[in-house]
């Protein structure tokens, strides 16, 4: 069954445009156990939002999980996970954290409840609503 995720990256370290330029990338360097468990649960065919953290605070694109179950190449201990991702498409309009927090139907989203979590699961109904928000012209 396809699952949905949100993955955060600081745009000055690795941005949506960097992923688009590269065509594919390894999502690694995550050092939080809950985020690691989320990475480990991902399988090829899952989808993830690309979220610019710290600068921007917005969901900017959709990417596909190409390969799951990878060992993090930046880790020698073998306890951290990674996945291979590729860009799918940029959102028509970025969806800001402020917009997400203002939407009562997204109040239970991991992005809102666990703001420091860098890899979050997104429920199907949250995924659909955010995609609808991205199509709406910003106020």
From TrEMBL:
This is EVE domain-containing protein. It holds the Pfam family EVE. Residues 3-133 form the EVE domain.
């Amino acid at each position: 069954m396809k699952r949905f995720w949100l993955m955060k990256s600081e745009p000055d370290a690795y941005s949506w445009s960097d992923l688009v330029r590269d065509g594919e990338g390894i999502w690694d360097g995550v050092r939080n156990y809950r985020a690691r468990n989320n990475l480990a649960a991902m399988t090829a065919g899952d989808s993830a939002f690309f979220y610019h953290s710290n600068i921007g605070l917005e969901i900017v694109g959709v990417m596909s999980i190409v390969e799951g179950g990878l060992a993090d190449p930046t880790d020698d201990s073998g306890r951290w996970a990674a996945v291979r991702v590729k860009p799918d498409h940029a959102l028509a309009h970025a969806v800001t954290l402020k917009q997400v927090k203002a939407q009562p139907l997204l109040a239970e989203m991991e992005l809102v409840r666990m703001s420091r979590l860098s890899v979050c699961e997104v429920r199907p109904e949250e995924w659909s609503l955010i995609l609808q928000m991205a199509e709406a012209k910003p106020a």
